[in-house]
Amino acid sequence: MKSEKEKMIAGEPYYANEKELTALRLHAQRSCHRYNQIDPKHHKERKAIIRGLFGSTGKMFCIEQPFYCDYGFNITVGENFFSNYHLTILDCAPVKIGNNVMFGPNVAIYTVGHPIHADLRNTGIEYALPVSIGDNVWIGGNTVINPNVTIGENTVIGSGSVVTKDIPANVIAVGNPCRVLREITEEDKIWVRK
Asked: Partner of 14 for a Cys bridge, out of 4, 41, 56, 148, CB 3.0 to 4.6 A?
């Protein structure tokens, strides 16, 4: 018989108020609390906490304080990851973030969902579906990424977007719900400040 943790990671319905999951969330909350209290100049100490919390990290990464997550062990970040202030990742399912990814402030990634019908929702049952973000992606500030979303490599998500469905590679996408605005082209290599 599967544990609630195993069900959660497998994308099956589970009960989050179970003892093991409650203890794992408390561990993550305490780690985030320690991380958020460290003097910003102590880079090594900050990185050590994140490395101990996440499933894996690249050698170079920066997550500005404050940072919050549900479990931590379901989060993997590639090389050269940067997140601005107030990143929140509800990582009940795996969250995979590629290399050279940048997040603006107040980005939120949600893998957890709840039943639509109140009778089921009131039982405390939940489900979680993964999020995957490809290499070289830039996520603008105040963006929300919902469960079961993949964002393709080299894509830019505009500020304030709510990503509810997969976004392909090499595009600019914006809005609520987030939609593809256009493809990224060679002309975008010409950077002119207007």
From this structure: 4
pLDDT tens, 119-158?
Answer: 999 999 999 999 999 999 999 999 999 999 999 999 999 9
> How many Cβ atoms are within 10 Å of 91's Cβ, its own excluded?
25
57 pLDDT higher than 80: yes
The answer to whether position 162 is within a domain reads no
Can you give the CATH number for the domain in which 141 is found? Answer: 2.160.10.10
* 86 included as an active-site residue: no
Whole domain around residue 61: which residue ranges?
4-153
What domain count does the chain have? 1
Question: Is residue 50 a contact partner of residue 66, using CB atoms and an 8 Å limit?
Answer: no
* Angle between helices 43-53 and 19-37 in degrees, nearest 10: 170
Q: Which of 42, 43, 86, 114 is catalytic?
A: 114
